[in-house]
Amino acid sequence: MNDTPRLPEARLGELIDGLVTQGWYVGTAFLPDALCEALHAELDDMTARDALVAAGIGRGDNHHLRRDVRGDAIRWLDRESQAQRRYLDAMGELQQALNQALFLGLFEYEAHFAHYPPGAFYRRHLDSFRGRANRVVSTVGYLTPDWPSDGGGEMVIYSPDDEREVARVRPEAGTFVCFLAETIPHEVLPTRWPRASIAGWFRRNASLGGMIDPAR
């Protein structure tokens, strides 16, 4: 793999326009194939070694497991591999582009691998709530190649104004989704195939009680 991450400039313009006009963006073949392959192999290895943890909902004292709400297992990215560094560096480029174009004041980015075994899902939710957290923009990068037509596991994006479905995203390697964390409801439909992705959030710095809000 080339050591220098580069996101396609024309696609970055599409992404920014999508956030401005509708609050979300879906780009197929957005992430480089070689990077997706390396990250997918890394996640497969973690899954085989039982190195993932069951994902919960909520944060801090409110964090708890709810397998009736979400069924994925996760591991936070920590730059321990070249592939992770390349992905996080690419997200750094995106953060800079969003700040320059939209003046969002994004301060940092956090992300984790997500593995959904067959039967797993994540019910409809928002990634952030107004005035209660500092996640501003959410991202999802998909890693599974050759996703079957009957594999399930699509992410459904809903209109923030009503119950209407506005997009259904097939979790195919290379597809990248970006949306406003506080306003765009979404869910993961039950999957019939092992589903691999990286979920991430650009955060705005916040201070609570004189202390900087931690990343997680």
UniProtKB/TrEMBL annotation:
Gene3D superfamilies: q2cbj1_9rhob like domain. One of its GO terms (molecular function) is peptidyl-proline dioxygenase activity. The keyword tRNA-binding does not apply. InterPro entries: HIF_prolyl_hydroxylases (IPR051559), Oxoglu/Fe-dep_dioxygenase_dom (IPR005123), Pro_4_hyd_alph (IPR006620), Pro_4_hyd_alph_FE2OG_OXY (IPR044862). Keywords: Dioxygenase, Iron, Metal-binding, Oxidoreductase, Vitamin C. The keyword Oxidoreductase applies. Residues 102-204 form the Fe2OG dioxygenase domain. GO terms for biological process: cellular response to hypoxia. Its cofactor is L-ascorbate. Pfam families: 2OG-FeII_Oxy_3. This is SM-20-related protein. It comes from Halomonas caseinilytica.
